Amino acid sequence: MKAGTPDAAGREDCAPRRVLELFATKWTSMILHTLASRHGGAARTGALLRSLPGISKKMLTQTLREMEGSGLISRHVEATTPPAVEYRLTALGTRFLEPIDLLYGWGRANADALDLLTVRPSSRRR
Amino acid sequence: MKAGTPDAAGREDCAPRRVLELFATKWTSMILHTLASRHGGAARTGALLRSLPGISKKMLTQTLREMEGSGLISRHVEATTPPAVEYRLTALGTRFLEPIDLLYGWGRANADALDLLTVRPSSRRR
DNA sequence: CTGTATCCGCCGCGATACTG
DNA sequence: CAGTATCGCGGCGGATACAG
């Protein structure tokens, strides 16, 4: 196999890249994971906001919109006052959780190896 | 389980988040994948540059540096003229390929579902 | 061939304030 | 409670030019 042949993640329109784009917005996977941890795979805005340390209200809404557009979650409004909005995992979203959890699991299983390096020992290269 | 309990991807210093950061630089997984497709899990700069449509020389080098710092790959220099540099998968990098390939595989398996949405049908919300 | 250094536009994302 | 609108900064990442 010669070089120059995009056999790997070559083409810009391939499925793998499409998946990576889902991770572009850094909160996507965490939101999905949080929803999954809830009973019924659903949660309201406020709950999500509280369960995701560091996320801003803006990013939450924004990411939720994108995820809805990607078909990962669905939005349900209770026409009460004050309004209650609930987000639920869709079939696609639920399926996407498999590879995500695998990724998370890998992270936990290799936490030590990752630690050694994020701390940046002391002397390196040059 | 009540809300407010960061049971999911809560803490900012947890392993899952650490893993996500590896995806922060969008080329990391693709570089790993490309290296894996080579015999011996190694490739030279030029080859990588040609195998990754769209990447710039700058980003390649930069990403390779970060990956080296993260222990995913190692750098080997042949002191010839012109110099020949080769990057190789490390044990950690190889292990990280498992979840990555799973992710890619998922993308291919759900390519159709993703297509329907990236095209954005026509009428939606509002 | 490999790598570094600038210049610079774009946009992810937080902070803050306001409407229903 | 849920959502939108603005402002602003940091930095990703491309283009280009130069060096070993």
Entry keywords:
126 residues, homodimer, DNA-binding, Arc Repressor Mutant, subunit A, disordered C terminus, mainly alpha, three-stranded antiparallel β-sheet
Q: Tell me how many strands of chain A there are.
A: 3
Structural class of chain A: mainly alpha
How would you spell out the order of helices and strands of chain A? HHEHHEEHH
Low-confidence sequence ranges of chain A: 1-8, 121-126
Largest interface: A-B, 61 and 61 residues
CATH topology of chain A: Arc Repressor Mutant, subunit A
Terminal Cα span of chain A: 34 Å
The helix tally of chain A amounts to 6
Question: Any idea of the CATH class of chain A?
Answer: Mainly Alpha
How many structural domains of chain A? 1
Radius of gyration of chain A: 19 Å
Task: Walk me through this protein's architecture.
The structure is a homodimer of 126-residue chains. Chain A starts with 14 loop residues before the first helix and ends in an 8-residue tail after the last helix. Chain A has a 3-stranded antiparallel β-sheet. In chain A, strand 2 (73-78) and strand 3 (84-89) form a beta hairpin. Chain A has one domain (25-116): Winged helix-like DNA-binding domain superfamily/Winged helix DNA-binding domain (Arc Repressor Mutant, subunit A, Orthogonal Bundle). Chain A has 126 residues and is mainly alpha-helical. The radius of gyration of chain A is 19 Å and the shape is globular. Chain A has helices at 15-24, 28-37, 45-51, 57-69, 91-109, 111-118, and strands at residues 42-44, 73-78, 84-89. The interface between A and B is large, with 61 and 61 residues. Chain A binds a DNA duplex (20 and 20 nucleotides) through residues 24-26, 44-46, 55-59, 61-62, 77, 81-85.
